[in-house]
Amino acid sequence: MRRRAGPTFVHAGAGVLAASFGMALAHLVAALTDPAASPVLAVGSTVIDATPTPVKEWAVRHFGTADKTILIGNVLLVTLLAAALAGVLARRRLGAGLGLLGALVALAGAAALHRPDATPRDVVPSLVAAVGGLLALWWLARPRGPRTGAPEDTTAGPGASRRAILAGSGVLLLGGVVAAGAGQLIVRARSRIADIVLPRPSTSLSPLPTGLEADHPGISPFRTPNGRFYRVDTKLTVPIVDHRTWRLRVDGMVDRELSFSYDDLRDLAVEEHDITLTCVSNTVGGKLVGAARWLGVPVATLLDMAGPKAGADQVLSVDVDDFTISTPLAVLTDGRPALVAIGMNGEPLPRAHGFPARLVTPGLYGFVGATKWLARLTVTTYAEDRAYWTRRDWATDAPIKLSSRIDTPRPLSTIRAGTHAIGGVAWAQHNGVAKVEVRIDGGAWQPATLGPDAGVDYWRQWYLPWDARPGSHQLAVRATGRDGTVQTAVRASSFPAGSSGIQELVVNVT
Ligand SMILES: Nc1nc2c(c(=O)[nH]1)N[C@H]1C(S)=C(S)[C@@H](COP(=O)(O)O)O[C@H]1N2
Ligand SMILES: [Mo]
C-alpha cells in the first residue's frame, strides 16, 4: 500500500476525528436507549468496578464529587490517544489502523455488556460507534491519487483530493457535534420529572424554623436545598427510571413476597422526617453531608407487611442496576424512622438522589443505608449475601460518627479585625448533638450557641461570636452527643472508619 503524504499530526488528527465521530453517534443512540451504554461511560463504569478499594477512597478523598469528571476525562484521553495512534498507523497500513480502532470499540462493547444489568441491546451504541468510526477513518485515510488499476482517479489531482478530505472532515466534525448535542438534549428531556403530585403525609411536621444562616451568613443552611445536596454513588450517568413501570419488590426470607408500584407507595401511609445524610468518605471539614426533610413509607411498615422470617439479619437493598447495599435488619426495625423515601424537601426525589424511591436510614452512613434508585428489598442473612461494599471489605454496620464542621470563617482565609461569628454544623448518630465547643488559639473550650433543634437525626447549627484581633489564629471545634460522648481528635488516617476528627483551621486577621 502506498505511503500517504502529509505530516504525522494530520494522520493522528484523522484518527481522533474518526473516533470522536463514532463516539458522538454512539452517544446519540445511547441517549435514546440507555445513556449508561454510551461507550466512554461503559468503559468508565468498568474501570470504577475494577478499581481497588484504596484507590477509590483516594480518588473520592482527593477529587470528591469531581472524581467522575476526572475519570471520564481520563478514559476519553486514553481513547483519543489510541485513536490518534490508529490514524498514524493507517497512514502506512490502512488495515492496521482500522484494526486498532476496531479493537478499541470492541473493548467498549464488552464493557457495555459487562455491566450487571446489561441487555444485548446495550451493545448497539458500540456497534454504531464501530460503523461510524471505522467508515470515517477508512474514508479519511484510504490512499488517493493516481494508481495503476484505478483509472478514474487519474483525473483528480492531489489538490482535489485534499479539498475533498477537508470538506469531508468538516462534515464529520459538524455531524459529530450535532449528534452529541442532540444526545445531550434527549437525555435532558428524558430526565425531567413532571406530573407527580406528592401525597400529604399522615404525620405532618411543622415547617422547619429559620436557621442561623439568616443572621450569620456562611453557616450551612439549616435545610440543604436539593440542588446543593452532595452526591455520592458509583454511577457515571444518573439512571433514568420510568416510575410508571417501576416496581419495588420485597422478597427473600419473608412470609409474603410483595411488589409495589409507585402509586402503591404513594397511597401507603406516608411520613415526613428530618434526617441528615452523610458519607463515610467525608473528610474532616468536608462537604459530603446534607440535611433534608424526607417523605416516604417507613421501611418497618413494608417489612411488617411481608413478615420477615426468623434468622434473617440483613436487608439487602438492590438498585435498578443490581447495585447492592446491606443494612442490619435490627437497625431497620428498632423504631427509628428509616424510610423508603419518595420526596425530598417537598419535591419528588431528584434523579441524582434516587428517583423514584430510595432508602434513608437515620444514624447510618450512606453506604449501608441510603440506597438510591431502589428496586428490591431482600430480607436475608450476612452469611448468605454480600453487598457491593461488603465484598470490598467495608464494615457491615457503620453508625455515623459524632462530627462537627466550621463553615465560617473559611480555612486559610483573611478576614478583617472585629467581631465575627465562628459558625458551622455538627451531627451525630441517631442521638443528637447536645453541645458544641470552640477553641481559639489552643485556649479553653468555649461553648457555642446552638441553632434550632429538629430532632436527634438532624444536624445542629452553631455559632460563637469572636472578637478577632490582627494576626494568625487557630480555630478548632468539637461536639458532644446527647449521650455524653465527646468528639475526640481522630486523625484523618482513620479513614474509612469515618473521619470524625476534630477540625482545626487557621485564619488570618488583618
Ligand atoms: N444505588 C446506589 N445508591 C447509593 C450509592 C450508590 O453508589 N448506588 N451510594 C451510597 C452512598 S456511599 C452515599 S453516601 C449516599 C449518598 O446519597 P446522595 O447522593 O443522595 O447524597 O447514597 C448511597 N446510595
Ligand atoms: Mo457514602
From TrEMBL:
Q: Which GO terms describe its biological process?
A: sulfur compound metabolic process
- Annotated protein name in UniProt: Oxidoreductase
Residue ranges spanning the membrane: these are 70-89, 94-111, 123-141, 164-187
Which Pfam families does the entry mention? Oxidored_molyb
Matches recorded under InterPro entries? Ig_E-set, OxRdtase_Mopterin-bd_dom, OxRdtase_Mopterin-bd_sf
UniProt keyword annotation of Transmembrane helix present = yes
Locate the Oxidoreductase molybdopterin-binding domain: which residues?
236-385
Identify the domain of life.
Bacteria
Q: Does the keyword Transmembrane helix apply?
A: yes
| Keyword entries, A-Z | Membrane, Signal, Transmembrane, Transmembrane helix
What Gene Ontology molecular-function terms does this entry list?
heme binding; molybdopterin cofactor binding; sulfite oxidase activity
Signal peptide extent: 1-26
